[in-house]
Amino acid sequence: MTRRLRLLVIVGTRPEAIKMAPVIRRLRAEPQRFDTVLCATAQHREMLDQVFDLFELTPDIDLDLMRHDQSASELAARIFATIDPLLAERRPDWLLVQGDTTTAMCASIAAFHRRIPVGHVEAGLRTGDLERPFPEEMNRRVIDVVARAYFAPTERAAAAIVTGIERRSAKVMIACSSSVCCSSSRLTSRPWRRRRRGGRRHHARA
Questions:
Q1: Is the bond leading into 191 cis (omega within 30 degrees of zero)?
Q2: 190: left (phi over 0), alpha (psi -120 to 50) or beta
Q3: Which of 168, 173, 133, 136 is nearest to 157 (CA)?
Q4: pLDDT (tens digit, 9 = 90+) per residue, 155-176?
Q5: Quick one: which H or E segment has residue 120?
Q6: b/e per residue 158-169 (b: at least 16 CB within 10 A)
Q7: Which is nearest to 89 in space by CA: 112, 114, 57, 58?
Q8: CA distances (Å), origin 174, targets 9, 122, 158, 162, 171
């Protein structure tokens, strides 16, 4: 019997959850192939919870890292401190992240340090200016440097990966459409109802 692929999916913000929702649901639909664990950093607490309710998703692990008036560096420090032991405990075959958030960037670096391959959903987006958007442009470039699989939403994004620094390493690149389209289709095809969240919440270390 073939061993299931262990996947750790990490999200922290509303846009990440919206765009990863169809990916997570698809992976969970094939439990015989994928052991999918959803981890929420709660970089944006209330907005993230709204999306989980909307798409009827419950995180397996909730790190609950949001703090009032937090700086990007403070958040990054907490993410590194909590994600690394989680990776050491779970030892996933792949880490999946989306976009260009602090959550995605820090989780990708932590996985790289543990030699865990990273899959980047919505990879290859570029403005060419580190100041616009800030810090997202830097975040997504860093993620693509350490990633092993790229899921580019457009041909232009795919080309940016091929011609960029990421090309120097032998990595897999897969071009696909934007997952947000799948999320939109799901929302417009069914009535909305609110659902109470459960899940396992892990508090960040002080």
A1: no
A2: beta
A3: 173
A4: 888 888 888 755 455 466 676 6
A5: strand 118-121
A6: bebbeeeebeee
A7: 114
A8: 18, 10, 8, 11, 10
DSSP state of 151: E
Output the six-digit token pair for 28: 């969970």
DSSP-based helix, strand, coil % in the chain, nearest 5: 45, 15, 40
Q: Which two tokens mark 68?
A: 């009032």
What the block records as the tokens of 134 is 């800030």
Per-residue pLDDT tens digits for 46-97? 888 999 999 999 999 999 998 988 899 999 999 999 999 999 999 999 999 9
Coil, helix or strand for 96? strand
Eight-class DSSP state of 201? B
CB contact set of 70 (below 8 Å; sequence gap of 6+)? none
Closest Cα to residue 24, out of 39, 9, 13? 9
Tell me the whole-structure pTM to 2 decimals: 0.83
Q: Count the Cβ atoms, other than its own, within 10 Å of residue 12.
A: 29
CB distance 44 to 65 below 8 Å: no
Would you say 125 and 100 are in contact if contact means Cβ atoms under 8 Å apart?
Answer: yes
Best CA proximity match to 22, nearest among 51, 47, 60: 51
In this structure, which amino acid lies at residue 191?
Answer: P
